[in-house]
Amino acid sequence: MNYDVFMAGFGGQGILLIGNLLSYAAIAEGKNVSYFPAYGVEKRGGAATCTVVISDGEVGSPVIGHPAAALILNQLSMEKYFQRVRSGGFCLVNTSLVEMESVHREDLDLLLMPVNEMAIAAGDARLGNMITIGAYAQRTGAVSLDSLKDALREVLPERNHSFIPINIQAIDAGAAFAKDASLK
User: Residue of 30, 32, 38, 174 with fewest CB within 10 Å of its CB?
Assistant: First the structure.
């Protein structure tokens, strides 16, 4: 079993946080993991990307030229990375920030999600990352939702542990959206 996912957006969207969260969840399940974050010097607003490789065996490299899955959260990331997703792979696209005319590939399992609107409906615009990672886990089975939720204690600073319940709700909302979309 091997899962690799490339996540891309801009600084402030929580890309690196969910990459770290996914990594901790996989480690808790006894899997080998590579976590490779990258971000622009500007921090908020600059480019933010992250690659996570999860495997039962050894992980050879954190660099994936053509990932099996991608989480694309803004237009610039769409333009830059969408065509790199491996044929037959999975791609989650944030329709809140991506122009839909740029989304066209018949060879992918596409999940089109209004992530920003869902985050606001969940109670905080900053929850888009948790909605995204919940949908990814539900759709791919890379890690269990319970492992993701448990890993929140590891990746969030203790001062933010009071926000764990709303993050769990956001993970569940993303998972429910992905599950409902797969039934259609």
Answer: 30
Q: Biggest alpha carbon distance in the chain?
A: 45
Q: Map tokens 């005319």 to a residue.
A: 101
**Mean pLDDT in each 10-residue stretch from start to end of the chain (184 residues)?**
94 94 98 91 76 92 90 95 96 95 88 97 96 98 98 96 97 97 75
What's the predicted TM-score (pTM) here? Answer: 0.94
At 141, the amino acid letter reads G
**Cα 167 from Cα 98, distance rounded (Å):** 24
Contact 133, 22 (CB under 8 A): yes
Contact status, residue 50 vs residue 33, Cβ threshold 8 Å? no
Phi, psi of 5 (to 5 degrees): -140, 140
In sequence order, the 6+-apart residues with CB closer than 8 A to the CB of 113 are 92, 93, 94, 95, 131, 132, 135, 174, 177, 178
| Amino acid (one-letter) located at 53 | V
